[in-house]
Amino acid sequence: MKAATVSVIGRPSSGKSTLVNTITGMKVSITSPTPQTTRNKIRGIYTDSRGQLIFTDTPGFHISDKELNKRMQQETISSLEDSDMILYLLDGKRRPGKEEETIAELVRASKVPVVAVLNKSDILTEEEKEVGLSFLASHFPSAPVLAASGKDDIGVDEILIELFRIAPEGELLYDENAYTDQDLEFRISEIIREKTIENLMDEMPHTIFVEIEDLEYDESEGHVWIRAAINTERDGQKGIIVGKGGENIKRIRKESFKEIKRIFPGAKLTLDLRVKAQPGWRKNGKTLDRIFRS
What we know:
Layout: E1 2-9, H1 16-24, E2 42-48, E3 51-57, H2 67-82, E4 85-91, H3 98-109, E5 114-119, H4 126-139, E6 145-147, H5 156-166, H6 184-199, E7 209-218, E8 223-232, H7 235-242, H8 247-261, E9 268-277, H9 285-291
Parallel strand pairs: 1-3, 1-4, 4-5, 5-6, 8-9
Antiparallel strand pairs: 2-3, 7-8
């Protein structure tokens, strides 16, 4: 029996969250075409007869001096320090540059086993495949180098084979039926944030965060009450989230409700969404401490 923790690292939009969701077979991380959707370290758990792999989906590594990006960088770096292995994803649709070199150096400096993957192989040209695989082979000469598509579940079995081959012997760290260790409030807040991003992608992808203000469950009645706040930076942005006649917030609530209901099968669900402004939250240390509490 084998057991290991695996940090999944790559640039924003390299497909990390999609791959983790594909491997676990469940929705663990929110996904979006918008870069840097993942902010926190998010753990997905995969178990089969070979053992257990605990994947940490890290924020996309992006070079920036902004406080929010610095926090996301630190989330990624701390994950590398705590893991048994690293799964490094290269987005084959983007030619490697300074940012990719920085990530590769971080991975090499960690001194732990690496499995290097050229992702999005289903949409790459032959030239893009050649460039990507060459970059990975030259930077990680002793590591397995694979091509895969997390979106289309191509090459994922081969990734698991290599990870289990490298993984150390050990007992299961989680129940064999577990697929994530996220707490309930975090999972709900991420669902609401995903639906907000999907509906307002062009307007404000990075100016919102979601907090669960109240979560109550009446077992006798089988009723769950959730009150959540979608927070933005300026009062003027609140109207964009709400939309004309409340159409945006209604759509966000409807789509969030549908997915949150899966967490509480058979229960009656009441979801109350509010929109608030917290000026300058992306530079506020106390607010960022709450967001990066994991």
